[in-house]
Amino acid sequence: MVTSNMLLAVHCKKTDQVDLKGPISKFVTSTYGTQQAADAADDLAAVQQLRNDVAGLTGALPALRDTLAKYYRALSLMETRFPVGSDSEHVRLTFTWYDSFRPSKKTEQASIYYEKASVLFNMGAVLTQMALAADRGSDAGLKDAARRFQEAAGLFAELRDSASLRVEAPRPVDIGPECAGMLERLCLAQAQEVTYEKARADKKNPALLARLTKQVAVYYDEVGRMLAAFPLSQHFDRSWAAHVGVKAALYEADTQMAAGAALHEAEDVHVEISRLREAQRSLALTKKDVKLCGRDLADHLAATEAALTATLAKAERENSTVYLQRVPAFADLPAITPAPLVRALPPSDLDAAGENFFAGVIPDGSARALSRYTDAVDGLIRQLNDSLAAASDDARLRLREWDLPECLQALDAGTAVVLPEGLRTELEQLEDNGGVGHLHDLVAQIKELRRVAGEELGRVEGELQREAREDAELRQQYGRGWARPASAALNSTLLEKVAGYKANSVAAGESDSRLEARLQQQQAAFSALSLDHAVAQMPRLQAPMVSVGEVEPAAVVATLRQALDAIGRLSAERAGVEEALKVEKNKDNILPRIMAAGGQHDKLFAEELKKYEPLKAQAEENLVKSREVLDVIGKSQAAYKHVFGFAEWRSACEAAAAGVRASLSAYREVRDNLSEGLRFYMSLQEAIGTLSQQAGDYALTRRLQRDDMLEDMRHAGKAAAQARSAEDERAARERAQAQMSAMHLASAGSGGPPPQAGGPPQGYGAPHHGAQPPQQPSWPPQAYGYAPAQNYPPPPQYYQHQHPPPYGGGPGAASKARRQPHLEESVSISAPMKVQVLEQLGGSESTTAAPIWASFCGCSNGAWQGVQTAFSPVSGEPEPLWQDAKGRAVTELATYTVEERREDGGAILRRSVKAASVDALRQAVTTEHNEAVAWTEEEEVCEDEPGLVIFDGGTYSRGPARLLAAKDAALAEVAAERRESLERQLNLRLDVSTGVSGAAAPASTALDPDEHDQEEGPVIAAEADVGEPAARQTVMVEQCCAWGGEQRLRLRLTLSVGPGESELDIEVLRVALFREAWQCLAEADAEACILPESGHGAISARGGRPCPADLAGEWKVLDATGVHATEADPLSSEVRQLVVYYNQETRQRWKRGPGAPTDEGGAFWLPGGVALELRMVAAVSRGAAADAQEGVDLDHAGRGFVVSFSWLVRDGTLIGVQREYDAGGKLLEVRSRTAVRGGWVGGRM
C-alpha cells in the first residue's frame, strides 16, 4: 500500500521469467505444421519480449501500462490457439506470480488464465499509481487523477467478473473476486474523493458538497466491510482496515459539517448543532484506528476535530443567545442523499481484434465459429434480398399487366409507346441495323465479292494455263525425253471447277440484278419504315371532351403519375438496401474478434448481428410502402383506362399498323434474299480459296518436278558426253594397233626375216584372240533414265476429294476433311519450317498467374488408355517395339496408364502397363503376374522437379534444367583453345615446307616422305592428346500436349548431348510417341475402363502424316511462356526456384524449309498430325544490362537448341510445346503454343 495525501495505490505483482518461445514453437510445429511455425516465429519473439518487459516492470508508468495492455491482448490471441496446461497435448508452461500484498507468497499455475488475471491486476495497480502521481494542485491534475481511478476501478471490475473466475483453484487471494471487488470500491471511493476536492476548490454550495462527501463515506464504508469479511480479513494488514475506517468517519463528519454550514446560512442553527454533534461523535470513534494510519491522516483528523469543535461552540452560543430553539435528535433529521459522480470505466484497450499476432495460425474451433457466423449473416441477407427481390418482381409484373407506364405515356404526342409492342420492337431493330441503308450496303458487299471472285477465278485459270503452256513447250523441246504426264491431262479437273464456279457466279449475278430492281421499286416504302413515320400514322389517346362520371380525368392522371414516381423511388431504395447489405457484409471481418473472444461466441454473434438491424428495418418499411403504393396504382389505372377508352384506342392502333407490317414483311424478304446471296458469295470465296490453294500447290509441285527433271537431264547429258569421248579414244587406240599389226604382217609376206621362235609377246601391238569390236554408244544415253514413268511419284488426283485417315483422336479430325493432299505427303524428314513474325497483337507481353499444381493434378488424375509408337531418327519410319506370340514385329503397343496424386500433394505417381494388343492389356491389368505383360513402368512427377514447367489444362514439359554439367562446358572451351593452337601450328609447318604463304601448296609440290612424317608426327600426336573434352551425356525430354481434358499426346525424345566448341553437339537417338485418351477415374474398375479392339481406333497412332504445306501460311499464335527464375525470401534470405509466366500474341508467317535437314536443324513429320522440329537458333539479346549481367557476348555466342512439338488437332488449329536451351545447355524458357490459321487468302479469312 502506498499513500499520498491520504490516497492509496496498489503495488504491482511480481513474476519470474518464463520461456514462451520454445514450448509454443514446438506445439505449433506438431499441431499446425512447419510453415505455420516459421510464420509465427517473429510473433513469438515479440510476445517473449513483451513478457520480459512485464516481468521487469521497467519504464515510465504510461509506457508500462501500454506494455501490459499489449501483452494482455497477445495472451487473448494465444488463448484460442495454444492451450496451456499439463496435458501432453497442451503447451507445457508454468507461470509464477507473487502476491501483491504478501510479496513472500508465490503461486505457480500452468494456466494462461492465471497469467491474464495477473496482468489485468497489474494494469489496475499501475493506473492507481498514475492517479497518485497526478498533480492534484491543479484543475487538470484533479481531472486526470479522477479518470485514472475510474479506469482502475473498471479493470478491477473486469478482474472480478471475468478473469478471476477462470483461474484454477486454489486461487490466489489478491486476484480473487473478493479482493478485486474491494479494490474496485476503493478506487471509486478515491475517485469520488478527488471529485469532491475539485468541487470544494470550485467553491460549490455546501449542500452539494455534503452530498458528495456522503458518497465518499459510503464507498469507504463498503470497502471497510469487505476488508472485515473472509478471506480478506486474514490476508490484509490491519492498517488497510484502519485507513478506510478513519476515512469513512472523516468524510461522514465532513458531510455533517457541510450540511450544518448550509443550515447556518438558512438560520436553522438548532439543526446545525444536531449534525455537528453527530460529526463529533463519529470522529471520536476513530481514536483507536488513527494510531495505525499515517501521519498525514492523523494530522487531518486533528485539524478536522479542531474546526468541528470551534464551529459547534459558535453554533451553541448563537442558539443560546439569539435563536433559543430546541436541538432536535439526529435520528429525527432527514438523511442526506449521496451524489455519486464517478463510475467504473470499462477498459477500452483489451480488445485483441486489432492485433496481428499469429494471423496465420487459425484453430479449427475459430474456423467453425466463423463459419457459423457467416451462415447466420448469409441467411439474414438472403432472407432480406429474397423479400426485396419478390417485391420488385411483383411490382414489375403488375405494372406490365396494367400496361404501365406505357398507357400513361400514350398521352404524350410523338411517343413510340403508341405502337403495338411487337411492331415497335421490329422498327427499333430495323433502325439499329441501318434501315434501307443496310440493304444498299448488302448490295455493295455482294458486288464487291462477285468482282473479287471473278478476278480470283481468272488468276487461277491463268496460272493453270501458264503452267500447261510451259509444259507443252518443254515437251516439244525434248520430245520423248520429257517423260512425265502432260499438264493438259492433270489440270482438266481444276479447269472444270473454274468453269463451274464462273457459271455459278453468272447465275448469281442475274439473281442479284432482280433483287436490285425490286429494291429500287420499293425504295419509298422501305424508307418510310421508321419509328417517327409509324407513330405519325397512329391515332392519339385523348381525354373525353365532357366528363360524365364522378372521376375527373386530370385528377386520375395526376394520381397515377405520383404513384408511379413513388414506386420508382421505392425500387431504387430497395436496390440501395441490397447494395448496403453487400457493403456491410464485405467489411464484416469478425475473425479477429472470434479469436480474441476465447470461446464466448453466442454473445459476440448477437452483438455483431445488431449492425444489420437498421437495414432490416429499412427493408421491411420499404415492403409495406410498396404494397400500399401498388394498391393505389391498381385502382387508379382501372379508372384511367375506363375514362380514356384505352381498349378502343388500342384496337384502332392495331388497325392503323397493318400497312406498316406489310412494308416490314417485304423488307424482311428482300433482306433475307440479299443475306442468302451474301452467304453464297462468301461460300464461293472459300471454295475459290481452296481451289486457289490446290492450283498453287499443283503449279508449285509441277515447277519443282520440272526443275528437278531439267537438272537430272543436264547431269545425264554431261555424263553421256564424257562416255562418248572415252569410247572414241578407246576406238582410236584399237585402230592404231590394227594398223601396226597389218604392217608387221605385210613385211613378213614380202620376204623379210622370219619371225623368231615363239613369235612376239601375246598382245603386243595386236589384239587378243576373241576380242570384241567396240560397242557403239546408244542414243539417247541410258543415263537420262526418264523414260520409265513409274520412277516419278503419281500426280495428285485433283478430280476427287480425298479424306485422309483421322489424325488419331484430334477433335474434329474425322468429321471435317482436310484440304487436298499434296504431292509431298510421303515426306518423313525435312528441313524445319521458316518462321517470320509479322506483328505483335494485343499490346506487349503481359505477365499472368502461374498454374495451380492442384488443378494440374486434377487434369492428369485418372486412367489413360493409348498406344505407343517409336520412329527412326534417320528415316522417320516406325520402328519395332515388341514381338507378338507368333514372333511378328509389333510397331504399336497398347498402353494403360494410371496417374494419381500423392497424399502429400507434391507429386503425381504414374504407373504404366504395356502389351502387344488390347486383349493382352486387359488381361495384364486384371491378372497379377501375367507373363504376357510386356513391362511395367513406375515414375513420379514432382512439383519441384528441376526443369518441369506446367500449363493450364494438363500441358507440360519435362527435361533437364541443364543439358550439360558446368564442368563439361568448361572442358569444351579448353579443348577449343587447344585445337585452335594446334591448327595454327599445322598451317605454319605446311607453309614452311611448301614455300607458300597464306595459300595451299601446289599439287605438283611433294614433300619428302620421311620429312613429312617427321613434321606431321608431333601434330598428329598433339591432336590425339586433345581427345574429347568430356563424355557425351544421354538425356530425355518429355513434352505433353493436352486437348479438351480427355486427349493428349506425349513425346519422349532421347538425345545424346556433347560439348562443342561454341555450341552443343546433339544427336537424336530415339523418338517415342504416346497417344492417350482419358477413360475413367483412377479409383474406377480398370477392366471396365479399357476400350475393346473395335473402339481402339479412336486412340490409334495410325493416321496421315502432315507435311510442310499443311503448316505453310499465316497463323495467329498465342504463346504462354514459363521462365525459370530465383527469388530470395526477404525474411529468411533463402533462395528458392520459381517459374514466371507471361503471355504474348503474334501474327506469324510459316514457310517450308529448303528441303532436306541442314545444319540449322530438321523436322520429323509423324503420323497423326504430329510434327517434331529440332532447330539451332542464334542467341538473342535480352538488353544490354541483362547481357552484361549474364556474361553474354552475342558476337562470339554459339547457337541455342529448341525442341518444338506440335499437334495439328484439326484443320487450321495447332497446339504445341517448345523448349529452348542456350548454347551452354541451360534451359531458357518453355512455351505452350496455340495457333489458329488466319489472314486473308483470296477473300477468305
TrEMBL record:
Record's keyword terms, sorted: Cytoplasm, Endosome
Feature: compositional bias, Basic and acidic residues: 725-736
Keyword Cytoplasm: yes
Gene Ontology biological-process annotations: protein transport to vacuole involved in ubiquitin-dependent protein catabolic process via the multivesicular body sorting pathway
Cellular component per GO, a single term: endosome
Bias kind Pro residues: ranges: 791-808
Protein name, as recorded: BRO1 domain-containing protein
Species of origin: Elliptochloris bilobata
